């Protein structure tokens, strides 16, 4: 099978952990131990988040004022390279020496007229007191929003339209390579009035980009790995139930929160609808069972309704 695995941020950094290189490597080692189990007989593409890593670079830039901070697209490219390097090394240590790897910096086109640009919602970078946030917003043209009792910069999160490197990703897969790409939802880019491609200050949702990636690669399975073993109704309550299988129409009616499971459900539903294939939301620890069809929340158009476990 051709499988796209979208790693959640917890695969790179646990909540509350210091963002050291050693901690990230240790977490990636745990993740790759699971991914290695499904390599035999399958073609693998690995996507991943990069929010904490971009946030750290933003903090470092804020501390060094001698140069203008690098834009988000450049920070995204830097983190794609860093995270891909560690995944390649840790997974390579587990697989046969002859297995080839490639990490691709992945440019993803967005629409300049996407309504998200008029309503920035994605928080990035450090937190500020209100007065400082307002001062920075005036100086730099930022949009800001409350974050608890502090404020943060917010940027647009437009939908991904096109993955520019899709052809080389296919070529690499056809040659037996494991490909790491579309990190952090890819590097957001758009065409200017002269039809020149340029980066843009935005953040693309990682799961929606992974869904588009899997669709364009004609993948057989999309695995959206997160820190729970399924999508739940009434999550955290005594009445919570894990969803075993669902048609996209039924799953979307449940109204998952935009800030947590919502984007993962949307991504899984879009892949299932557009391809007729299966998307699964579940825990990386269950990835063997997910591939075998016995774990996670399986989203498919094969049959109507919804079932629980």
From TrEMBL:
<keyword id="KW-0808">Transferase</keyword>
<dbReference type="InterPro" id="IPR001048">
    <property type="entry name" value="Asp/Glu/Uridylate_kinase"/>
</dbReference>
<feature type="domain" description="Aspartate/glutamate/uridylate kinase">
    <location>
        <begin position="1"/>
        <end position="281"/>
    </location>
</feature>
<dbReference type="Pfam" id="PF00696">
    <property type="entry name" value="AA_kinase"/>
</dbReference>
<keyword id="KW-0418">Kinase</keyword>
<comment type="similarity">
    <text>Belongs to the carbamate kinase family.</text>
</comment>
<dbReference type="GO" id="GO:0019546">
    <property type="term" value="P:L-arginine deiminase pathway"/>
</dbReference>
<dbReference type="GO" id="GO:0008804">
    <property type="term" value="F:carbamate kinase activity"/>
</dbReference>
<dbReference type="InterPro" id="IPR003964">
    <property type="entry name" value="Carb_kinase"/>
</dbReference>
<dbReference type="InterPro" id="IPR036393">
    <property type="entry name" value="AceGlu_kinase-like_sf"/>
</dbReference>
<protein>
    <recommendedName>
        <fullName>Carbamate kinase</fullName>
    </recommendedName>
</protein>
<dbReference type="GO" id="GO:0005829">
    <property type="term" value="C:cytosol"/>
</dbReference>
């Amino acid at each position: 099978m051709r499988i796209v695995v979208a790693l959640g941020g917890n695969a790179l950094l646990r909540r509350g952990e210091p963002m050291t290189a050693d901690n990230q490597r240790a977490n990636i080692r745990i993740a790759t131990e699971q991914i290695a189990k499904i390599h035999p007989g399958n073609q693998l593409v690995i996507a991943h988040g990069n929010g904490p890593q971009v946030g750290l670079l933003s903090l470092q830039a804020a501390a060094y004022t001698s140069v203008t901070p690098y834009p988000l697209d450049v920070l995204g490219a830097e983190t794609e390279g860093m995270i891909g390097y560690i995944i390649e090394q840790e997974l390579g240590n587990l697989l046969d020496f002859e297995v080839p790897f490639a990490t691709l910096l992945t440019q993803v086109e967005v629409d300049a007229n996407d309504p998200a640009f008029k309503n920035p919602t994605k928080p990035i970078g450090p937190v500020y007191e209100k007065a400082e946030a307002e001062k920075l917003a005036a100086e730099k043209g930022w949009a800001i929003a409350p974050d608890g009792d502090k404020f943060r910069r917010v940027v647009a999160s437009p939908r991904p339209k096109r993955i520019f490197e899709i052809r080389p990703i296919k070529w690499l897969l056809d040659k037996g390579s494991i490909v790491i790409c579309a990190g952090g939802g890819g590097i957001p880019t758009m065409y200017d009035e002269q039809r020149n491609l340029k980066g843009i200050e935005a953040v693309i949702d990682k799961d929606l980009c992974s869904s588009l990636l899997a669709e364009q690669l004609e993948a057989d399975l999309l695995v959206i790995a997160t820190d729970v073993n399924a999508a739940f109704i009434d999550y955290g309550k005594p009445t919570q139930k894990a969803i075993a299988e669902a048609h996209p129409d039924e799953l979307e009616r449940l109204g998952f929160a935009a800030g947590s499971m919502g984007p993962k459900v949307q991504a899984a539903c879009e892949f299932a609808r557009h391809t007729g294939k299966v998307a699964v939301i579940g825990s990386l620890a269950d990835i063997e069972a997910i591939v075998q069809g016995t774990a996670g929340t399986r989203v498919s158009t094969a049959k109507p309704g919804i079932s629980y476990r």
